[in-house]
Amino acid sequence: MAITAAMVKELRQRTGAGMMDCKKALVEKDGDLEEATLFLQKKGMAGAAKKAGRTAAEGLVATFSSADQKSAVLIEINCETDFVARNDAFQNFVKEAGNLALSSGAKDIAALKATLRADGQSVEDWTSTVISSIGENIKLRRLMRIDSPEGVVGSYIHAGSQIGVLVDVKVSSASDEDASGFARNVAMHVAATNPQVVSPEDIDEAVSAKQKEIFIGQSIEMGKPPAIAEKIVVGRMRKWQSEVSLVKQPYVKEPDMTVEKYATQVGGVSVKSFVRYQVGEGIEKAKSDLAAEVAAQLNN
């Protein structure tokens, strides 16, 4: 029997399984929707759609770099529990997805989801299959790719793959070894200090204005007259700009010098950009009451 797109769509709506899994089930059961549904349920492939609605705030970040360090990707993939984040199947999923992102040239999650694996299955359908297999919701949350044809991309993973960093370093005269070492060390620094911008000039004017307003308000609350508060804020703003700017921060390995001075010491290198991911940042985690959940189960 010919399997149509409409049949695959209906089976997917019924079961929440991936498109390729639905097509295979229909082929296996000669187009019988009921039998195909039962087939997917027995295989544990149904129900991915329901799981996809659950909050996924745990997981891993990972970096993947080309051999010449000219290209790299940083990816965050979430699951529901730390237990699954430590699971080999989930970690293998992250590794394969990251390597596929690097090799395919995908620059964001949407592009990665549309990418086909070697077996012809889309990453989106593959994710649905893994959700069914693992039993938790999985989210390919975000992806950043950096290409640096005239430099190197440093990478660093910290805290059990909970924080990941990429740093794009422009190289003018440094050796490959010195440039790579500088890029990795700065990536480590970014993981530790979480700067907001590369330099003070990169701070958004609206962000700067809001911070100034906060400082003025704090000074007035302390009883300072508005005119005096304005003068006090000048120094506080200068200090704040240094604190949030990567190159002005004290270098974590040698706090007596800034990152900017460290770059000068190495020679022939400068930081162009960076990206830092921390697992689950910005995701509102659902609060659960274990006693209430158990009571609800007992009453069902």
Any descriptors?
300 residues; Helicase, Ruva Protein, domain 3; Tetrahydropterin Synthase, Chain A; GTP Cyclohydrolase I, Chain A, domain 1
Envelope shape: elongated
Number of strands: 8
- The secondary-structure class comes to alpha+beta
Q: If you consult CATH, what is the topology of the domain at 55-147?
A: Tetrahydropterin Synthase, Chain A
Blueprint (SSEs and pairs):
Layout: H1 5-15, H2 19-28, H3 33-42, H4 48-51, E1 58-65, E2 71-79, H5 82-85, H6 88-104, H7 109-113, H8 123-134, E3 139-147, E4 151-158, E5 163-171, H9 176-193, H10 205-221, H11 226-244, E6 250-251, E7 254-258, H12 259-266, E8 269-278, H13 290-299
Antiparallel strand pairs: 1-2, 2-3, 4-5, 5-8, 6-7
Question: Mind explaining what this structure looks like?
Answer:
The chain has 13 helices and 8 strands. The chain has 300 residues and is α+β, with helices and mostly antiparallel strands. Among the domains are: 5-46, Helicase, Ruva Protein, domain 3; 55-147, Tetrahydropterin Synthase, Chain A; 204-243, GTP Cyclohydrolase I, Chain A, domain 1 (Orthogonal Bundle), CATH 1.10.286. The strands form 3 sheets. A 3-stranded antiparallel beta sheet has the order 1-2-3. It has a 3-stranded antiparallel beta sheet with strand order 4-5-8. A two-stranded antiparallel ribbon has the order 6-7. Strand 1 and strand 2 (71-79) form a beta hairpin. The longest helix has 19 residues, at 226-244. The protein is elongated, with a radius of gyration of 25 Å. The mean pLDDT is 89.
